[in-house]
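Hi C.,

You asked whether I'd gotten around to modeling the 209-residue construct. I have! Everything is below, sequence then structure, no commentary in between.
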Amino acid sequence: RRRLRRRRTGGRGARLQRLVRRYDEVLAGLRERNRGRHARHDRAVADLELVLRADHHAPFGDPGRALAGQVADHLATAAELLEEVGAVRDVPDDIREQAIIALGRAAHRAEEIEAWNTSGRYHDRALGLLPADAGSARWPALLGRANARIAARQLRDAEDDVLIVLEEAREADDLRHEAAALTLLGDLYAADNDYDRAEAILSEAVQKW
């Protein structure tokens, strides 16, 4: 069992070691560009090292949900720092894209256990990294955040998110996302005890699916 555990976790640990080294270099470059943020940069590197140690101590067979969230947060931190100070030599151009993907995965894992506050935070952070004109690239995060907001009874904010996707999906003639938005909108109205409206919206969603 011990040998199997090492085999199962070793590859992931090695990838995280490379991740720590890579973003240590990123943050070192950021220090040169903005020395006033030493403490923040050091904290980000230390947190990445904690992620690495957490991986080595993860229970056998653990899917790595907490680990995925920590990695997503620190990738997002690196991307946000780069947004503030601009390009840094030898830093990959796709850091922001990596962070968005990692945040989406972490949100999905949180949704699997109905940790809505956590999933909503990941979706919200992903939206902060996505440009406002990103179009359909923003839809999964908007719908995910809306779902979390429904669970938190933030129904008007959730409705705003869903209606953005619904309007843009209709303009793009994207039936799949239109149906997904309608389904979530029906859930929202049901949560608001507006059952007649919920039934009408969900009937429309069924037709789109």
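If it helps when you're writing up: Confidence is low (pLDDT under 50) at residues 1-9, 54-63.

Thanks,
B.
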